[in-house]
Amino acid sequence: MSKFNLYNTEMEKKVEVLVCYGTLCHLMGGSDLQLLGELLPLDLQGKVDLKGAPCLNFCNEVDNGKPPFAVVNGRKIEQATVKKLIQEIRVELEKK
Amino acid sequence: MAVTNNAMLIRRDLLTHFIKLLIEDNLADVDRIPLEMRPKNESSIRCCIYKDRAVLKYKLMGMLGFSSRDEVDELIPLSDYARKAFNGEVQSDKILTVVDEACSSCLKINYMVSNMCRGCVGRPCMVNCPKEAIKIVDGKAKIDHNICVNCGQCMKVCPFHAIVYIPIPCEEACPVNAISRDEDGVEYIDSSKCIYCGKCLSACPFGAIVEKSHLVDIFRTKKSGKPLVALVAPALAGQFGGDLGRIIHSFKMLGFSQVYEVAYGAEETARLEAEELKESLNAGEKFLTSSCCPSYTMLVDKHLQELKPFVSKTATPMHYSAVKARELFPDACTVFVSPCSAKKREAMDDANVDYVLSFEEYGAWLVAAGIDLNNIESETISEPPIAEAREFAISGGVTNALRVALNSSNLNDTQVNGIDKTSIRLLKSFVKNPEANYVEVMCCEGGCVGGCNVITNPKVATRQIKNGKK
Question: Do B375 and A55 touch (CB under 8 A)?
């Protein structure tokens, strides 16, 4: 990230992360994603808008991949883990 | 609780597939489960999909209460075993079994020299090996495993960290050496030593250890029309988002007629144990330990007899709530909803508990029934148990409840938070030098929220229980 961004971080749009808290996702490893908020690295704090959602219905289609699911800035992430979501958040931040 | 891994997820997936068939009352199709989970043309996890399928078959057999070692005819389909189990024709007391086909027979060699060895001049590994088991071959250190006694000296002294320790995960996790390799090189659980903590179940990266399930029995009872009562362990309040009202309602949706919180039994345990503590200290006893963790009481019975006089005689919350549930609903079948396999063992000796349903099985049942806990109504709990009783599931919680029951803040207490080889030594030392008047012992780190069958991360579960709706 360049120095210039430091001045307008407040203006930056946050990365939206939606974690599926549906029972299936929760059972299939999604329960760990409840820790994402506190495991977020210091440099990402304040830049992420983290939300939980009831079943996002990704599990109904085999083509969607495997649970647990999350959505990062509108992109579906399958087999989400804390590590994977942090990577995806960084990808989104670098796009800017 | 184990770190989330694929072996665990496969087990949960397998349970979900199995419960779907139980709901449809279609156990004849159980032979299809391995094929559905490992379809043709998909990559395999083991050597090929056929091996994967065979392992799934034997895991299902284990869940049904059959050991793959009992198999006499390999052509007998899984559906036959399932039918037998459903008809209640298996009388197996084995709760944890090793699936031979899944056990990878991990290396017995504990220490190995890796490629990082530089064949240095100092050769501290060779110099310090007490058995002279290390020689230099082709410029690198080599351990003679016939002489090596696995002391680990070489690993400690190597300046390049070139010597690695390779554990056998299940054996290393077992606090009481109950699991070891038999003459065929496959792990075997010695039930005379086992304390059913389930640590091996969580530790095996091949998912080779399988827990017997009571699901068939529960569905048989349900089919017969007998009402089911769910006795929900305090730890359940921290699972699945932590809304106990919704969890209670979900049991009604699954076909249970009543739900009874085991926290009520915990109130009873706390009250009686507080009295017992007062009495025994007045009688001049040095200390008293808790008794609500069945793995701990089994540990004392099987391995630490000298501690026996100091273990509380008060029964577990499960027992008191089961007695109460029997009294309230005499015609119903009681199902304890449990965070661990030790409770399954405890229930076998308790006439008031008919079956045990693990948190994992409950979660898989919700998924199989298409229930999302977020989208159902939350039942109001009219007379909730005291908050301290629900916190029995958290390390330190039993002590807290006792403190409230004793109405005293100066309880001289200590906690053994997790049973392993070190804490067993500590417990032994208490006989001569007790550190406190009251010792709370939890087999799993963090308490029951860390049990081998929990879904939610123990840290989150603890928070959810503490924040739980009163």
Answer: yes
Side-chain half-sphere exposure of B199, counting CA atoms within 13 A:
23
Tokens representing A41 are 């690295």
Please choose, from the candidates B132, B142, B136, the residue with its C-alpha nearest in 3D space to the C-alpha of residue B111.
B142
Flag whether residue A1 sits within 8 Å of chain B, measured between CB atoms.
no
Q: Dihedral angle at the C-alpha atoms of B282, B284, B285, B288, nearest 10 degrees?
A: 20
Tell me, what's the ipTM?
Answer: 0.87
Q: Annotate B360-376 with b (16+ C-beta within 10 A) or e (fewer).
A: bbbbbbbbbbebbbbeb
Question: Cβ of B372 under 8 Å from any chain A Cβ?
Answer: yes
* Cβ contact, residue pair B367, A24, below 8 Å: yes
Q: C-alpha distances in angstroms, B197 versus B25, B32, B174, B293? A: 32, 32, 8, 10
Pairs of residues, one from chain A and one from chain B, whose beta carbons lie less than 8 Å apart: 52
Specify whether B86 is located in the same domain as B181. yes
Taking the Cβ of residue B41 and every Cβ of chain A, the question of whether any pair is shorter than 8 Å is answered with no
Residue A19 phi, psi (nearest 5): -100, 130
- Domain identity same for B149 and B247: no
Other Cβ atoms less than 10 A from the Cβ of B109: the count is 12
Same domain for B427 and B368, yes or no, is yes
Distance, in Å, from the CA atom of A32 to the CA atom of B455, rounded to the nearest integer, reads: 9
Return d(Cα B277, Cα B30) in angstroms, integer. Answer: 51
pLDDT tens string B389-417:
999 999 999 999 999 999 877 789 999 99
Looking at the fold, whether B90 and B115 belong to one and the same domain comes out as: no
Side-chain half-sphere of A43: how many Cα atoms within 13 Å? 8
- Among left, alpha and beta (phi > 0; psi -120 to 50; other), residue A25 is alpha
Does residue B455 belong to the interface with chain A, where contact is any CB pair within 8 Å? yes
Domain that residue B260 falls in = 224-467
Assess whether B157 and B265 both reside in one domain.
no
pLDDT-derived band at B186, boundaries 50, 70, 90: confident
Of A24, A35, A55, which is closest to B457 when you measure between CB atoms?
A35
Are residues B363 and A54, on separate chains, in Cβ contact within 8 Å? no
State whether B251 and B302 are in the same domain: yes
Judge if B333 and B365 occupy the same domain. yes
CATH number, domain containing residue B191: 3.30.70.20
Tell me, what's the pLDDT at B391?
93
| Integer Cα distance of B346 and B442 in angstroms | 15
Beta bridge partners of A53: A20
Give me the CATH code for the A15-94 domain, please: 3.40.30.10
Structure tokens at B286: 């040095």
